[in-house]
Amino acid sequence: MRTIIFPDQPANQILNGYPKGSMPDEYTGGVGKEGVENLRKFVEAGGTLVFLNRASNFAIREFNLPVKDVTAGLPRKDFYIPGSILRTELDLTHPIAKDMPQRSIAWFENSPAFEIQTNPLALTNNFKIIARYPTDPKQILLSGWALGAEKIAGKAALVEFTIGKGKIVLFGFRPQYRGQSLATFPLLFNALSQ
After folding, report:
1. What is the pLDDT, as a whole number, of residue 194?
2. Are the C-beta atoms of residues 173 and 184 closer than 8 Å to each other?
3. Is residue 1's pLDDT more than 80?
4. Cβ partners under 8 Å of residue 176, min gap 6
5. pLDDT at 120
6. How far are the Cα atoms of 13, 139, 193 from residue 95, in angstroms, in the given order?
């Protein structure tokens, strides 16, 4: 099993890292374009790349995935979920959702929500939506604050793409967040073991 996990961080930080001189040299720089190509070879050869929360935007951009973060660019007056527990609905036929309840929860903190940009009925699609938010905006928020929940209603929260022989998994939330992990750690562990 070969898996690389990218924790929650901005896409540009993964690509470019911190500039030289801002800290010890061994902690500066990012993966760079050469690293992106090596990651592409890794996944095409059968590896798995797992991206958590905002790191998913790096995968979308650098691997040209047919998915859009519907929260990107929304002004705070229209959409703001700074740290709340949201309801999710899981596709229990997928191995990442193995042994999970059909209705679950996730910690959403300035997170992405995904909209697939290809025809979902096409026979050649290389993606699977594993978790999504309820289609009724009134059913999304379980605890906390959610302004503009209708913007993510029915959108994907967890998606897997097949690239060559490998997979790219996008978590639109932080599955390892504090005590919230009881509901989402199994998804992360299943993503690592498939």
Report:
1. 77
2. yes
3. no
4. 52, 184, 185, 188
5. 60
6. 31, 26, 9
Phi-psi region of 145 (alpha: psi -120 to 50; beta: other; left: phi over 0): beta
Residue with tokens 């996730």: 106
Give me the residue label for tokens 């720089």: 29
Backbone angles phi, psi at 170, to 5 degrees: -110, 115
Q: Name the average pLDDT for the chain.
A: 94
- pLDDT attached to residue 121: 65
Residues 120-158: tens digit of each pLDDT: 666 567 999 999 999 999 999 999 999 999 999 999 999
Contact 169, 5 (CB under 8 A): no
In angstroms, the CA 124 to CA 129 distance is 15
* Other CB atoms within 10 Å distance of the CB of residue 12: 12
Exposed, middle or buried by CB within 10 Å (0-12, 13-18, 19+), for 73? exposed
Element (H, E) at 178: none
